[in-house]
Amino acid sequence: LAKQSGNDFETAKADLTENVLQRIVKESKLSMGEVSVSKESDGTYNVIVPVTWSIPSGRVLSTINKYFNDYNGKSISLSSSRHGGTKLVKISGRYADASDSRQPYSGRLFDVLQAHEIVLEASLGSKRTRLVVAGNLDCFVSCGYSKIPKNTWGVAVNGGESIHTFSASQENPIVIKGVTEKELEQNGMPSIRFILQ
Fold first, then answer.
1. Contact of 97 with 110, CB cutoff 8 Å
2. Is residue 158 within 8 Å of residue 54, measured between CB atoms?
């Protein structure tokens, strides 16, 4: 029974990793708007990168709902954040550990999620800026990003030029700061990508 339980956990962990974390990185739609540049007083430039994204929330939710539940055993669904209406999938650690959870090891699976973040990176030459789109949240008052694992892990499934995610910088569009004139000339347009870390 112990061996079977260990196998079940590893299977669930692989499912969660492949069909939530890796799926977000591989299957999300990511697009860049018209980039603009502003010169700073120190002679460097800020590159302003409008970014929009859409994460396949239905497919992600279907996997999440195998292992976690929301209030009173109900399925987790999309909800609006207080950060400008961003749509979030939120998983509470409290309900991952509840005795009526769908899986006996959902608390351990919650720890797996809390060990990871998915960031949106905009880079130009050696300069880069990262915006957290999936990671740890502190939802005691309203949901905000936290570098330290808190009581909730969440995914911002959509984002736009005027929408804040739960980011460390709270900047959107993404601003790549401190770019030199040489870097501007050599590198052309910035690049954007999702990274699982």
1. yes
2. yes
